[in-house]
Amino acid sequence: MAGSGPLHTGSSSAGALPIGVLALQGDFREHLAVLGGLGADARSVRTPEQLASVRGLVIPGGESTVMDKLTRAFDLAEPLRDAITAGLPVYGTCAGLIMIADRIIDGGRDQQTLGGFDVTVRRNAFGSQTDSFETDLDVPELGDVPVHAAFIRAPVIEQAGPDVTTLASLDDGRVVAARQGNLLGTSFHPEMTGEHRFHELFLRMVAAA
Ligand code: GLN
Known about the structure:
Layout: E1 18-22, H1 28-37, E2 41-45, H2 48-52, E3 56-59, H3 64-73, H4 77-85, E4 90-93, H5 95-100, E5 101-105, E6 117-122, E7 132-137, E8 147-152, E9 156-160, E10 165-169, E11 175-180, E12 183-186, H6 197-208
Parallel strand pairs: 1-2, 1-3, 3-4, 4-12, 5-6
Antiparallel strand pairs: 6-9, 7-8, 10-11, 11-12
Residues 61-64, 94-95, 98, 123-124, 152-153 line the site of glutamine.
């Protein structure tokens, strides 16, 4: 794929980068399909052993309160925190963004996050009137063609620390995509609209890590 960087160390799939998708809940199948289509060795992650075998991890959209409970029940929360602290590249979409955020507004009762991403996210930021919509976003980092983005009961990034770079905002200024070192987060779901450039960016981050 032109311009997408070195995703392979060899021509066989044995040389493809092993990329995990946290597969406890949510739309992990869509992410596995996109990553596989881009040439990654995409794998479901449900155990600490599986987590240890990957070079990058996608946390999908779904329901962050449920994902929080399941990561704790599956003894994955601490290994995930340790991996993020050790620098594992992680891409969180929607609920996945909430999972990696350091702070949440309107979280569920006793909801915890894995943290690492120095942002405050507001859950369900668009309320019940507009809980789902699609729009085109300018994302200069990904080129001139706008990103067609699907927002589904989506969070927004309300505050971000100094090391966080904004990648995309809505017309009203609310931040919906950002990066901090090896962490990437989007409020929306590129995996649902045929948009692969965020996953390509993530694979370049993994290759460079
Ligand atoms: N509202 C969900 C949450 O709080 C996120 C929705 C989504 O991932 N599409 O986790």
